[in-house]
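STRUCTURE:
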């Protein structure tokens, strides 16, 4: 079931720019890395080892091939969902394995409890995309629950969860498989450790 849900959100692929390795932060893993690391692990062992939720990046979310994206350049303003570069191509297991996985955690030396997402290198999770603001969104851990909330930070192109635009600084609780869009061109999918394990099991079968 997890693979079906995950594949559904990978259905709309955007025109990709190859050579995106330039934007990959050191230490960011892919789904394929987690497949290798989780070999022969039970669910309990996996959740104990990888105890933080993750954001899995959709394949093909980089800009048009004739555009250049800098982590410090200005945000490109876009027109909601109408500017999506759609494709009829169906995702396959290899696409999913290539997807990058971002741990929801503070990076070393980062201050405060909130996890910041954006294009600027100062963010805890740095995301290079034409519709991503330098400081785009923040994720907060709900104490004693294991749940997480996301809020938009007055970004230029907005933050969407399940297709609904969030009001700035109004927190929205995240659930497994929630699609998150930072502007209409950059898409992530929220997975708890249990949901990530289910995805990996489905890819092994």
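SEQUENCE:
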């Amino acid at each position: 079931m997890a693979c079906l849900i995950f594949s559904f959100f990978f259905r709309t692929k955007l025109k990709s720019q190859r050579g995106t390795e330039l934007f990959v932060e050191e230490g960011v893993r892919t789904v394929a890395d987690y497949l290798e690391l989780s070999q022969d692990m039970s669910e309990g062992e996996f959740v104990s080892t990888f105890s933080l939720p993750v954001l899995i990046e959709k394949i093909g979310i980089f800009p048009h091939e004739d555009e250049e994206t800098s982590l410090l350049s200005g945000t490109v303003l876009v027109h909601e969902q109408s500017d999506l570069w759609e494709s009829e191509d169906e995702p396959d297991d290899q696409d999913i394995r290539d997807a990058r996985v971002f741990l929801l955690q503070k990076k070393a030396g980062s201050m405060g409890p909130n996890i910041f997402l954006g294009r600027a290198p100062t963010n805890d999770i740095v995301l290079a995309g034409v519709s991503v603001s330098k400081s785009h969104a923040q994720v907060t851990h709900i104490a004693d629950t294991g749940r997480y909330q996301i809020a938009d930070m007055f970004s230029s192109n907005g933050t969407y969860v399940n297709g609904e635009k969030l009001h700035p600084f109004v927190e929205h609780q995240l659930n497994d498989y929630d699609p998150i869009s930072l502007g209409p061109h950059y898409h992530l999918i929220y997975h708890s450790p249990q949901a990530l394990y289910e995805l990996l099991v489905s890819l092994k079968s």
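REMARK: The chain is about 20% helix and 20% strand.
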